[in-house]
Design a protein that fits this description.
mainly alpha; two-stranded antiparallel sheet; 2 strands; 47% helix; 1% strand
Length: 289
């Protein structure tokens, strides 16, 4: 009977004993296909090494698939028989599929705080999990924002704290979580991110675009029929004062607070007067052109 003792993933040998044979793998795969998670749990509790075995062509393990399908009630029982050794435990939980996603990435992307917490609570070095990147350079926290999962983002924020959190906010192409949240039109989440991490307003991607540039390119942020050229001028010129009541008239209600926070983050003066006063403020004439 063929065994999996010599199986490798991404060049790393998996520690699979000869007791875990092809028949068990077939049984595990069939149980997943049938959506029989009760049997899947039983198989994994019989032999924890079942958690190491890729089930799909994308090298998804049982944990990946449980996270994809948000099997929260089954997730913890799957891990009950993990070895006590920290290194073996971490190796199982950090296994990546072909996209470089670990089970924590998937749990974050579906917004399951429960599954994220189950994983985090079973590891000694939280940093190695929070900083683990997929092929796009995205951390689990980044994946949560990418899919608009506010509660998952707040959970990771509670672990990282305001200082350490900055280490997990940028992916390979230079985009930050603020870029992506705005691009995906998660305006409420964008507001939360900017309020917690105001320095992100200054960061640009590989094309030199800031989060405010991204916002200016989103027609949905503005009321139908608005001429968006004025907003572009605000970004690149910012020379005079603004009467905020006039600015609000152009904005979609979802982004009023977000734009105001951008202005505060840039330390621009937000005055009621229409009189030019300084070179770093916004002028009403930009709104009327």
């Amino acid at each position: 009977m063929k065994s999996f003792s010599n199986l490798e993933i991404e060049g790393e040998p998996l520690e699979i004993s000869d007791d875990f044979n092809l028949d068990t793998h077939i049984r595990l795969s069939r149980s997943v296909i049938k959506n029989d998670w009760k049997e899947v749990v039983e198989i994994c509790q019989e032999n924890w090494e079942a958690l190491n075995i890729p089930i799909t062509k994308s090298l998804d393990t049982v944990l990946h698939l449980a996270a994809y399908n948000k099997k929260e009630d089954n997730f913890e029982p799957l891990l009950n028989k993990l070895p006590s050794e920290p290194e073996k435990r971490a190796k199982v939980l950090l296994l990546k599929n072909t996209e470089g996603n670990s089970p924590l990435h998937i749990a974050a992307s579906v917004g399951s705080v429960k599954m994220c917490r189950i994983i985090i609570d079973r590891i000694d070095s939280k940093t190695s999990f929070l900083s683990a990147c997929n092929n796009e350079g995205e951390t689990p926290l980044f994946k949560a924002v990418l899919h608009g999962k506010k509660e998952a983002f707040l959970y990771f924020h509670s672990i990282c704290g305001p200082r350490e959190g900055y280490n997990y906010f940028t992916r390979t192409d230079g985009e930050t979580i603020l870029h992506r949240a705005i691009s995906k039109e998660y305006f409420e989440l964008s507001f939360l991110i900017l309020r917690m991490y105001s320095d992100l307003v200054y960061l640009v991607d590989k094309d030199g675009k800031s989060p405010l540039d991204v916002l200016a390119s989103k027609p949905s942020a503005f009321k139908s029929g608005s001429d968006l050229r004025w907003f572009e001028k605000i970004i690149y010129h910012c020379k005079y004062t603004v009467k905020f009541s006039r600015l609000v008239a152009y904005l979609n209600s979802q982004v009023i607070n977000l734009v105001l926070l951008f202005i505060c983050s840039y330390q621009l003066s937000l005055l009621i007067s229409e009189t030019p006063t300084c070179t770093r403020c916004i002028h009403l004439s930009l709104l009327s052109e």
